[in-house]
Structures are given as structure tokens and as C-alpha cells.
Amino acid sequence: MSDEANDNGPSADARNDDPADGWFPESVAASYDDPGGAANAPEVVTPAVDVLEDLADGGPVLEFAVGTGRIAAPLATRGVPVSGIELSEAMAARIGSKPGGDAVALTMGDMTSTRVDGAGEFSLVYLVFNTISNVTTQDGQVDVFGNAAAHLRPGGLFLIEVGVPDLRRLPPGQDTVPFTVAPDGHRGGYVGFDQYDVVTQEFSSNHVTVSPDGKGRFYRIPFRYAWPAEMDLMARIAGMRLKHRWAGWDRSEFTADSTTHVSVWEKV
Ligand SMILES: C[S@@+](CC[C@H](N)C(=O)[O-])C[C@H]1O[C@@H](n2cnc3c(N)ncnc32)[C@H](O)[C@@H]1O
């Protein structure tokens, strides 16, 4: 599962990064919204915002791990009341500079446990761009589902967008799946690969960059994968049941060959 959401490693001087910002400190946040980044393209953002606006049913809504407001800010411009929880000050500092960003009610904290004003009244909680995988233990992921349910009103919805674990690409005895191999001769090169531990369900995304002068950088980010069915069980523990499972924001059918899913659970 190439983790595009986390592929942008430190691009600037990392010496001033605050460790409290986790894997998204200033040196990552600085380029997160760079023009040309696929995740910020209107053809990616708009379909997501369309679905979220529809499911919000007027709101209010809460984004877990709101980041720089890539999704929350455009959703707020549509008149939906949006709150967000975020761990990284460096990421959150960018929300206000976006159209609609000033309207996003931000709470700094960990989405496994942080409660925001209005808990119990939200119509929709959402967690997109593979970010459930940034929580690297099963207990932590169960807590995310529990915290989402605690913020929802009865009948409210919890939505997750995440890749399907790429384990079908692992032959017996192999634990590594390359997702980009881009040798570029005299201008350096890049290799990206995921490495899986199928016992713990931990995996890592690994980025090896060689610059034109031959210097290398190895950047490794830890994750945990969960099958859609495991997430259904986490939802059930939290008092929710599956309402939709789509292959993407176009609401297409989820099949055995789907590489991502957008899943929606309803608080019973
Ligand atoms: C890939 S970015 C996604 C940001 C935003 N949701 C988007 O779609 O662009 C992941 C974000 O999750 C945040 N994050 C990771 N773990 C978190 C946690 N346990 N609680 C709150 N935020 C977290 C990171 O700081 C980062 O901003």
C-alpha cells in the first residue's frame, strides 16, 4: 500500500523541527501543499468534498487529523460547520491561510483521545488520506473508532478513506513491495518501497533518495494496516455498523480488486 499521504518526507532543513509534531513537522508541512502535488489537485479534492458535504447533511462535522485543511477548508467554504483535531502545530498553522480555513474550529491533540466542543452532536466524523494507518497499534485504532463514535449523534456517520493492504503482491518469503523505482542517471534517483510484517500488521513506507552529488537519504515511516473487515469489527466495538463501502470517492463498487476503500459506519 504505497502511502502517498506520507510520501513527502522532509524537504527543507529539518534541524528546527519540533519532535512533538511527529511525522509531520515544519520541514514536511512546508511542502505539503505544494502546487502540483497530486493530493491537492481539484480533481482529487472536489469529489471528496462533494461526498462529505452530502453525508454531512448540514453538519456539524469533525475531521480527525485535519492537517493543513486540504479537505476541511474547502468543505467549510460550502457552509458546513467544520471542526478539526490535529497533532502537528506545523501542519495546523497552514489551515488559516486557505479560503474557508478561518472557519475551521481547530483543537490540537491526538485523535485517539481528544474530545472537542460539541462532542455527541456531530453528524459526520471523517479520517481521510490513509491516516488511520498512522496509528500504529490495534488498540490505538480501536480508540480512534471509539472517539469518533463519542463525537457522533445517534445516526451520525464515521467515514474512513484508506488503501487496501497490498499483501496480494507479496509472494511467500517476501516482505517488501516497491511502489516507485526512478533511477535518474546523473541527476540522482529515488526508490520507494513498503515493508510488511504480516504477524503484527505493522508496515513501513521507505524512501531512498540519491541527490545528483551522490549523497543519499533514507526516510522510513511506520504504519499499521487493518483489513476492511477488521475495521468493521472496530466499528462494532464502538457501537457503529457498516452503511457504505465504496472503492473511492466516486462511490463505485468495492470489489476484490479494489486498491482503496471509502467506508462509512453509522452510529446505532
Ligand atoms: C497525511 S496527513 C493528512 C492531513 C489531512 N487530513 C489531509 O487529508 O490532507 C496526516 C495528518 O495526520 C496527523 N496525525 C497523525 N497522527 C495523528 C493523531 N494520532 N492525532 C491527530 N493527528 C494525527 C499528522 O500530523 C498529519 O497532519
TrEMBL record:
Residues 61-156 form the Methyltransferase domain. The keyword Methyltransferase applies. One of its GO terms (biological process) is methylation. It comes from Actinopolymorpha cephalotaxi. This is Methyltransferase domain-containing protein. It holds the Pfam family Methyltransf_25. GO terms for molecular function: methyltransferase activity. CDD domains: AdoMet_MTases. Keywords: Methyltransferase, Transferase. Coiled coil: none annotated. Residues 1-41 are annotated as: Disordered. It comes from the Bacteria. The lineage of its organism: Bacteria, Bacillati, Actinomycetota, Actinomycetes, Propionibacteriales.
